[in-house]
Amino acid sequence: MTRALNKLSASAVKNAKAGKHSDGGGLWFAASEQAKGKWFLRVVVHGRRREMGLGAYPAVSLKEARLEAEKWRGVVRQGQDPIKLRDKQARDAARNMHLLNDIALDAFETRKAELKGDGKAGRWFSPLELHVLPKLGKVPVTDIDQRDIRDTLAPIWHEKASTAQKAMDRLGICLRHAAALGLDVDLQATLKAKALLGQQRHKTQNVPALHWHDVPAFYQSLTDGTVSELALRLLILTAVRSAPLRFLHLDQIDGDTWTIPAEAMKGRKDSTSDFRVPLSTEAQAVIEQAKPFARDGFLFAGVRRGVISDATMSKYMDRRGMKERPHGFRSSFRDWAAEATNATHEVAETCMGHVVGGKVERAYRRTDFLEQRRIIMERWCSLLVSTSDNILIGKF
């Protein structure tokens, strides 16, 4: 029986003439020229003759071909079609070889529509890009487990707690995306990784901010008329975030109102309305002073291209020896509105660009309090430019 199955020898295969040569048991060698050819297996499945290739010679040796042939004969003995089974295994292997890098990019693409500015600022993807993909990007997503995630995020788990948490959350989204694609992933991997990493020690700290009593003196010190100073002045006057201010385009200005596109506003995902910012007399004056620096319609153009960077105003304050950050002026304004005015909570929060109330409440309340906010911002302007130490508390 052994000789009936193993008719060929290594030497006979190597020197075989062109044509088909049987090794027995359905295994054949099709020689094309000396020392070259292909292996194939003939089997009968469900009354139908099937031929399946087993590889080329000499890459697949006689011994390897015999082992492969026996494996597939066993499949036939179980009543299965070996060609169909092999194709299915190949499809499964290909499906499960998706790398995390590819899954992450695909997950990002599907979520762009719900991200501010279609995610162009990169804040959704950057935690993955900076802290996860360099280590796990080339790993098949089906191979990733809690130990991989723990080892990847451990260096920043306590030192950069907020960033690490964002990276963990994004990775969880990627795993759920992979599962939706039909991949066999561990959806509990991030939860298990958190258990391995433990409670984070880092405590969130508020952005350092000047007390509102000290803001006028700082504002009045911005006298050089540089782009950085003009941007800071308008940031303080309007209490907006830095991103909409940096990307302020002149066509967004209409007289004494600046309209920020809805997609540029943070924290307003469920709102499709643009946000109107009332411009005080001082704010309008600052815009006029900045216009000579405008380029391509952007009021605060960068030195070489685009607009000023996110760090431009922070670095200016660093050079002044200040620990406070530009974003802190929003807190200064909000504290002033709470302590020195009678503005309602809804009006004061709307000044900050915050969405106030639930969906039902907002559905009935259509106003954005523009005229009330215009009075408040003019009062804030008066405080900033005043040289008097008397801070009057008044009604709006």
Record the SSE blueprint:
Layout: H1 2-5, H2 10-14, E1 19-24, E2 27-33, E3 36-45, E4 48-57, H3 62-77, H4 82-95, H5 100-111, H6 126-131, H7 133-136, H8 146-153, H9 161-180, H10 189-197, H11 215-220, H12 227-238, H13 242-246, E5 253-254, E6 257-260, E7 275-278, H14 281-290, H15 312-319, H16 328-340, H17 345-351, H18 359-364, H19 370-385
Helix pairs in contact: 5-9, 8-10, 12-14
Task: Give a written overview of the molecule.
- A hairpin with a 2-residue loop joins strand 5 (253-254) and strand 6 (257-260).
- It is elongated, with a radius of gyration of 34 Å.
- The chain folds into 3 domains: 2-94, 2-Layer Sandwich (Double Stranded RNA Binding Domain), CATH 3.30.160.390; 100-197, DNA polymerase, domain 1; 215-385, Intergrase catalytic core (hpI Integrase, Chain A).
- Helix 8 (146-153) packs across helix 10 (189-197) and helix 12 packs antiparallel against helix 14 (281-290).
- Residues 390-396 have low confidence and may be disordered.
- The chain contains 19 helices and 7 strands.
- With 396 residues, the protein is an alpha+beta fold.
Which strand order do you get reading across the main beta sheet? 1-2-3-4
Shape designation: elongated
Share of residues in strands: 5-15%
Mean pLDDT score: 88
- First-residue to last-residue Cα separation: 104 Å
Unreliable stretches (pLDDT < 50, length at least 5) are 390-396
Quickly give the CATH architecture of the largest domain.
Orthogonal Bundle
Family: Belongs to the 'phage' integrase family.
Pfam family, one: Arm-DNA-bind_3
Keywords: DNA integration, DNA recombination, DNA-binding
Domain Tyr recombinase: 205-377
